[in-house]
Amino acid sequence: MKALFGRYLKVIDWYIIRKYLGTFSFTIALFMVIIVVFDVSEHLDNFLKSNAPLSAIVFQYYAGYLPFYTNLLLPLINFLAVIFFTAKMANQTEIVPILSGKASFNRFLRPYFFSATLIFIVFFFANIYLIPFTNKLDITFENHYFNDVDPTKSEVHMQLDKDTYVYLQSFDNTIHTGYDFVLEKFDGDEMKQKLVANRIVYDSLKRVWSIQDYNVRYVNGLKESFVYNGIKKDTVLDMKPADFEAHDNVYRAMGMAELNKNIQREQLRGTGALTDMLFEKYRRFVYPLSSYVLMVIGVAISSRKVRGGIGLPLGIGIFLCFTYIVVDRFAFVFSIKGGMPPIIAVFIPNVLFGILGYYLLIKAPK
Asked: Is the pLDDT of residue 149 over 50?
């Protein structure tokens, strides 16, 4: 491995790599301090009001909060790091001798791609394994200390299996009780049974649903029969109280195995959350590609020596990076609200800015 690196990475390459990764690490640390300072000032009253212990705030809330927002801002951090040290090298006339020494611009980019690859690997595995775990810490803390009432869905339609459909008007998560419950069983397109109940209660010890005050209608061709005023009936249904919780951030706290399992269940149930789940899944794989896309743009706009120092490239870089984040958010909205397939929506920011990066790379001074 050392011989391989020695063959392709020379002294000047390691010089750029150290600058890249050193500036990147310093920028991450700076952003984390800024995030904590602003968040403490915003949530100090909530911490005091909820009497949250210091250990929970540090090792649960911020242990989950910081990785999530660092991961969210990583394209910005990476972009600013590239622009800052590259523009500084250009301002100090360090790039001109490199390109004048018969090194092509593509060869000059080699240490940048090497560093971006290291960041991509960390970024990728953090999205798949680390961030869902830390998100769960953060969400658990917020739901326990910040939310006084657990929000729940209303008017839920759900498919439990190939032939069974249920409807629930409302659900009280505090007492695990649903109201105005309807269960329908079909044989193909023909309904065979319809159960209507005033209440349905989940027994967490027995793990069964207790259907209370119900009527059942049986259909057999043109013949129908009714069972009136059933008082109580315990049954096992493929649904849990958690299926009726309405936390918007619940999917980002799921590991890949759990997320894939819920996607398979949602494809059958059709409660309307499938797009959110698919977008979250695809985004974990695609979002880290921004390490390469924004690195290329950063090098292209900051490798030219300009009058006034690094201020202009840095300003342009900040504008472009925030534009990237805005486009990423709009892609999410287009997917959830506009019907765009999630697999296409997650690629939109990287494709658009990849094209921009390629154009800027062609126009960059060589």
From this structure: no
